[in-house]
Amino acid sequence: MSPSPSAPPGRTCAEQRAFALLAGTDHGRVATSMRALPFLAAARHILVDGRLLLRMHRGYGYHRACIGSVVAYGADNLGTCEPGAAEWSVQLVGLCEAVLPGPAELLLFGPAPRGVDGEPYDPVYLRIEPQFVTLHESDPAGPAV
User: Fold this and answer.
1) Taking a C-beta distance cutoff of 8 angstroms, is the pair 82, 54 a contact?
2) Burial class, 6, CB count within 10 angstroms (exposed 0-12 / middle 13-18 / buried 19+)
3) Hey, which residues does 136 pair with through a beta bridge?
4) What is the pLDDT, as a whole number, of residue 80?
5) Beta-sheet strands, E only, within 5-50
6) How many CB atoms neighbour CB 124 within 10 A?
7) Average pLDDT per block of 10 residues along the chain, 145 residues long
8) What is the 3 state secondary structure string of the chain?
């Protein structure tokens, strides 16, 4: 798989915009269930050939609940965008599997943290093949009334 931040052909304009927004941010949240309970976990992401690659800390064990499951992944700029800029939120849903990224993908991820919660960071990599992609955008705030 060659690193390419673009959405694959055949995606709608909204989906292509969603992929472009995801490519412009580094982190999001993966959602699935573990022992029949829902949970969210933060993850570093990159977009490669229309698929989302995630890097998570293996020490939490969250990756085990994701692998082989349909998961949701979301990223946004809510509360962090410049005043007067539009806010956006992207969510995609798809099957998640464990992967071993190549050297080019590892470079795209950048350096991993040294530690998490006082433990050495041990990366695990996952791939989500998007089946559904949703984008919500708000218009910039108007003047105060």
Assistant:
1) no
2) middle
3) 89
4) 84
5) 27-34, 37-48
6) 20
7) 54 91 95 91 94 95 95 93 85 98 96 94 97 91 63
8) CCCCCCCCCCCCHHHHHHHHHHHCCCEEEEEEEECCEEEEEEEEEEEECCEEEEEEEHHHCHHHHHCCCEEEEEEECCCCCCCCCCCEEEEEEEEEEECCCCHHHHHHHCCCCCEECCEECCEEEEEEEEEEEEEEECCCCCCCC
Cβ-based neighbour number of residue 123 at 10 Å? 16
Tokens of 63: 């990756």
Residues in the chain: 145
Residue-level pLDDT at 4? 47
State the pLDDT at residue 131: 95
